[in-house]
Every structure is written in structure tokens, then in C-alpha cells.
Amino acid sequence: MVLTQVQQLDEGSSYTSSVFASRYVQDPVPRYELGTSSISKEAAYQLIHDELLLDGSPRLNLASFVTTWMEPECDRLMTETANKNYVDMDEYPVTTELQNRCVNIIARLFNVPLNVKEAAVGVGTVGSSEAIMLAGLAFKRRWQNRRRAEGKPYDKPNIVTGANVQVCCEKFARYFEVELKEVKLREGFYVMDPEKAVEMVDENTICVAAILGSTLTGEFEDVKLLNNLLTQKNKRTGWDTPIHVDAASGGFIAPFLYPELEWDFRLPLVKSINVSGHKYGLVYAGVGWVIWRSKEDLPDELIFHINYLGADQPTFTLNFSKGSSQIIAQYYQFLRLGFEGYRNVMNNCMESAKILREGLDATGRFDIISKEQGVPLVAFSFKERDKTLAFKFSNLLRRFGWIVPAYTLPPDLENTTVLRVVIREDFGRTLAEKFLSHVKMALKELDSMIRAPVPTIRYTIEFGPGENAGDEPMVKVVKQEVGGIQKSVPLLSGKTKGVC
Ligand SMILES: *Cc1c(COP(=O)(O)O)cnc(C)c1O
């Protein structure tokens, strides 16, 4: 999306420089207008390739959950299938079948109550954002249908979430005209409080959205407690308020690392779950999933039916055409890794997160805000209550190539600034150790930039003449606590002083 103005500094800047590619192109190539003539494929490649060199390195981007490495075999599959449109189900029935397998695999991973022969209800999306829009629409429509049947007004739907909610939920609320009711956060408690959420539920609540893996801190919200409290409230009021779980980041963590944790379809009020295939599903950007508990939870009027080969192919997506490479890559990962493979990858990520957490803690400068259980990330803030430190520190780390975001927390914790390092599969032990050593260097630089010199110990070596002429000179080490760093070395007659 372009909201900013195009760069129009001077005549030259509206052209893409062709200096390096000048063996292929002689004339400058316009930047914001279609060129009048064609250029060779070599030149086009070189120009774009070179300009992209100025992007950050995806592998050093510790800000994002989204996959930045896949096996070359999978890269190959993705390139081979780049020309298949996902929506052409008649033409590509095998791709459609692979999507359906993925939906079933994920649904069963999330303990959907189905027997072996039953097909799961769900769809592949562009990411969790589209998945959440679809899940939200299903809740809204279900609620409206019920209210209409009861002869009650159905024009003021709301959704209850924590203030830590991801932006896509806010988008859903605004785009589809649903009021967003947020439970505020408080010091030391960075996720939705289920009790407060249930208090906020009223007859117009289409669902409570819980997050498995809060974007800010990676923490899992207590979906089981929410389910229990909401069940009681539903019983008391006669309402039927359901739960959606936004498992964008945690959906591929919990089943492998915490199989006993009940957060999914094992809880009766959980009617739909979304997960990002391109996060811990281990696929490059462009795939998410939404799974419904049963057909009853997805109103039929939202589904469009396509018939092919005599079978009914239901579809429910916001957009029509899109690539199928990511869907195929998701199936590759399921086939290739199996339960064991995913568990190993997630275990490794957790190990790296532990090393980072301990290393950051050992500097004595940070409060660690993320929990040990959750998504493999470390969220931390400076112990000093200076809101600007985190932003300065983030800039300093950028000089080493690391991209570590700093952000303020949502209400009521706007005064806390947090830094977050997300661990992905390709962030190995060596990188973790390197990162920690850069953290220490950046801390030193931060201190020298903005703080009064820290008290240091100064050792002074003093050389004096020996007691008798001809003796070896006497050496004395003097230890002193000093405020700053001594910059000059005074030379006194007969004595040499040095600071070390
Ligand atoms: C990343 C994330 C989203 C958005 O997911 P996309 O797949 O990037 O669209 C939604 N909710 C949570 C909790 C997330 O972490």
C-alpha cells in the first residue's frame, strides 16, 4: 500500500540508477513511471537484486515470527508450483486435496471431536488475519441469526478480548462493524484476565477471543479458566457465548511442547481456532488456517459451493485467486517432519530462548517479561524506568545487523517499553551467543552515550626509586574508586604513573 508520497527530490532521484547495470542499459530507468522501452532480463534482474541489498537480512530479523528458512527441497516445490492458482479447484484437484489434508491434520492436532471417517471443517487462508476475519464473520452471523430468531435487536454486536490483542482483531472489529471490548492489562499481568473478560460479556457478545501466545510477550492466556467461567455465566444467563482462540503463534507450539495443556477443542466452548502456517507451521509468509469445531459453527450462508468432478467443494475465503505454493509447502512440512520433527524443532527453539533469557538476565540490566511457558521468545525491559532506553538500545543493536523491536505496552501499561527477540528454527546456538555478546557491547555503548560515567576502580602502578642507590625501582599498585575515566597520564619527576 502506498500512503506516503513518492520520492521527488530532484530530477535524478526519480530514476533508478543504472551505473552497475550499464553494460546492459545505457539510459536511466524511470522509477515511478512505466519505462517507454523494454530492458534486458539480465539488467532487470541486476537492478532489482542490487536495490534489494539494502533491505535488512531476514535471518537476522528477530522481530518476526514468520519463517525465514526452509529446506531446499521445499524451496524447489514452491518454485515448481508458483504458477498454480489455489482457487482453480477443478484444474488442480490435487492441490485442493493437499489443502484438505492439511485442514484435517491441524484439526486433529487441535483435538477436534471427530471420528476417523469424518472430515474436518476449515480452510487455508493468507494468514491468521484472514483466518480471524472469517472466524469473526461466522460468530457474528451465528449471533445475528439467533437474535433474529428470538425477535431481539441484532445491530450492536461486540467482541471481548484482552488489550494485548493483535491488530488483525481490531481490523476485524472496524471493518465488520463489531465493537471491540478490551480487558485492560496491569503491572505484572500482560494478558487477558479471564474473570474480567467474562464480566464484560453481555447479550451482544458474539464471542470472547483468547490468545494462545500473546504477540507482546508470547504468554498463553488461560483458555481453560475462561471456558469454565463462561460456561457458568452462560448457564446463569441463558446466553450461548462461545470462544475463539487466536493461536497464530502458539498453535504449533502447544501441541508439541505442552500436550497436556487444555486450550483447544477439548474445551466445549471453543468453536474455532486460527493458526499461522507461516509462523511455527514453518512455511514462508502467505499461509494461515482456520478450523471450526463442527459444521454447525459455520453458518451455511457464508459458504459458497463449487461443484467439480461430481463432488461438492465448499469455499469460504475473502479473496478469490492466490498462489498455492504455501499450501503445498505446508503439506511438505507435515509429511517431512511428522510429530517428532515438529517437537524437535520447537524444543530447539525453546532451548535457544532459554540461553538468551539467561544471558540477558545475567547482564543485571533487564526485567524479563516473557514466561518460560509459551512461544519461544524473550521479551524484556530495562530495569531503569526510562522509556527511551529500549528504543536507543534497539538502534544500537541494529548497527550489528540485528533487528530487535522496541514497543510500548497497551493500556494500562503504556509506561512500559519492551524489547522482544523471537526465536525461529534458523536462529541457532551460535547466533544466540553472538547476539548476547553484541548485547553486552551495545549496553556499554548505551552507557557511554547517555549516562554519567559509572564509578570504576582505578589501579595505579607507581614506580619509586629503591631504598639504596643501585636497587631495583619499587613498584606499588594503588587501588582507588573513581568517578570517571582518567584520560591523561601525569608524569611526575622521578616517578612514572600509568592507569590500567
Ligand atoms: C501474528 C499474529 C496474528 C496475525 O497473523 P498473520 O498470520 O501475520 O496474519 C494474529 N494474532 C496473533 C496473536 C499473532 O501473533
TrEMBL record:
InterPro entries: Glutamate_decarboxylase, PyrdxlP-dep_de-COase, PyrdxlP-dep_Trfase, PyrdxlP-dep_Trfase_major
E.C. number(s) listed in UniProt: 4.1.1.15
Keyword Plastid: no
Source organism of the structure: Ananas comosus
Modified residues (N6-(pyridoxal phosphate)lysine): 279
GO molecular function, one term: glutamate decarboxylase activity
Gene3D superfamilies recorded: 3.90.1150.160, 4.10.280.50, Type I PLP-dependent aspartate aminotransferase-like (Major domain)
Name by which UniProt lists this protein: Glutamate decarboxylase
Keywords: Decarboxylase, Lyase, Pyridoxal phosphate
PANTHER family in the cross-refs: GLUTAMATE DECARBOXYLASE (PTHR43321:SF13)
Cofactor: pyridoxal 5'-phosphate
Catalytic activity: L-glutamate + H(+) = 4-aminobutanoate + CO2
GO cellular component, one term: cytosol
Recorded family membership: Belongs to the group II decarboxylase family.
GO biological process, alphabetically ordered: L-glutamate catabolic process
